[in-house]
Amino acid sequence: MLPNDTRKKIENIVSGIILNGCEGHCAAIRNELCSRFATSRVVKTGFESNILVKKEQADLIEAYCTEHRCWFENVPNANRYLTRGGEARVYLSDDNRHVIKLNDAVYYATWLEFLNSILLHNLIFTNTQYRLLGFIKEEGILYAALEQIYIAATAQADINDIRSFLEFNGFGHVRRNDYANDDLGLILEDMHDENVLVNSDMLFFIDSVFYTVAPLRPAQ
């Protein structure tokens, strides 16, 4: 089960509260955006109506990157390329122990939604945390450069094991590979055997898509 301090941090993210005591560019940029924009309480709606909002947030991220020297300049060479998922290009890092994912946040209506999802992943799936290395811009498109530990799968994840793990942590199965935690106000999607790997009989959630919604029971 999620410890109480983790649950409190999640509640603060869902409620759009500024996160204190959090280090790193991800939390800093999220806080800056959060101070200007409302946190979404709906799932995958308003993509068209939020085009201008997402562009405005991208402009703020670019300004932050320039001010804080957060532009990512060590883009891996083509020979380090591994694969491409729905929203990210994946490269093997030069240390052969991590992967670097270039993510354009296409699954999210706003960049604030994306950054919230990364922070939620880091709180819930602690053994595959992301580190935001910075941002790059290619052909007018902004990408987040994320570093994550490289997991070599030794077996295929069983959907039932994934479901049992998530239900133990308060996420009820909704449909297909999607889950929800009604108490915390979270939707978690695409938890299939390509986004969850097995190594030494342990599950590693390497890709997640979180959305924040109104919790069933508001935080006290």
| Shape summary | globular
Mean of residue pLDDT?
93
β-sheet strand percentage: 25-35%
Q: How would you classify the helix and strand content by structural class?
A: alpha+beta
The total beta strand count reads 11
Radius of gyration: 17 Å
Instruction: Please outline the major beta sheet.
Output: 5 strands, antiparallel
Helix content bin: 25-40%
Taking the alpha carbons of the first and last residues, their distance comes to 19 Å
- Give the SSE order as H and E letters: HHHEEEHEEHEEEEEE
Strand order of the main beta sheet, please?
Answer: 1-2-3-5-4
Individual helix count: 5
Low-confidence sequence ranges: none
Offer a quick outline of the entry.
This protein has 220 residues and is an alpha+beta fold. 29% of the residues lie in helices and 25% in strands.
Structural write-up:
With 220 residues, this protein is of the alpha+beta class. It has 5 helices and 11 strands. Strand 6 (172-175) and strand 7 (178-181) form a beta hairpin. Helix 1 (4-15) packs antiparallel against helix 4 and helix 2 packs across helix 4 (111-124). The two termini are 19 Å apart.
Question: Which labels suit this protein?
Answer:
single chain, about 220 residues, alpha+beta, five-stranded antiparallel beta sheet, four-stranded antiparallel beta sheet, 5 helices, 11 strands, about 30% helix, about 25% strand, globular
Secondary structure layout plus pairing:
Elements (H helix, E strand, L loop, with lengths): L3 H12 L9 H10 L16 H18 L12 E4 L3 E5 L5 E6 L7 H14 L6 E8 L2 E9 L9 H10 L3 E4 L2 E4 L4 E4 L6 E4 L2 E4 L3 E4 L8
Antiparallel strand pairs: 1-2, 2-3, 3-5, 4-5, 6-7, 7-8, 8-11, 9-10
Helix pairs in contact: 1-4, 2-4
